[in-house]
Amino acid sequence: MVYKYNSNSIGRIPKDLKYERAKLIYQYRTKQGMTLERIGKIFGITRERARQIIGSFEDRLKQGDLGLDKQKNKSIMEV
């Protein structure tokens, strides 16, 4: 069976909610130690997609560590 990707599904989550979702996924993984599989079940995504989201969120944090937005990153890590 071949899955036919729905191109309209990209627009389902607004960008600001994607950031909040990424922040929650990152916190679940780092602070609570949840597995990728469990995180995937909570958010309705695959564990590979959860890993990708965590990776991109960490990249954002690293960019902020270079001086782009340090204050915002401090507040993210404290939450």
Total helices: the number is: 4
Unreliable segments (pLDDT under 50, ≥5 consecutive)? none
* Largest sheet geometry: none
Class from helix and strand fractions = mainly alpha
Number of domains: 1
**Distance linking N and C termini:** 43 Å
What is the total tally of β strands?
A: 0
**Helix and strand string, N-terminal first?**
HHHH
What is the arithmetic mean of pLDDT?
Answer: 80
Indicate the percent of residues in helices.
Answer: 55-70%
Structural summary, described in words:
Helix content is 70%, strand content 0%. The radius of gyration is 14 Å and the shape is globular. With 79 residues, it is mainly α. The longest helix has 22 residues, at 47-68. It has four helices and no strands. The protein has helices spanning 15-30, 36-43, 47-68, 70-78. The mean pLDDT is 80. The protein has one domain (13-78).
Question: What is the fold's blueprint, element by element?
Answer:
Layout: H1 15-30, H2 36-43, H3 47-68, H4 70-78
Helix pairs in contact: 1-3, 2-3
Quick structural gist:
This protein is mainly alpha-helical. The chain contains 4 helices and no strands.
Tags for this model:
mainly alpha; 79 residues; globular; 70% helix; 4 helices
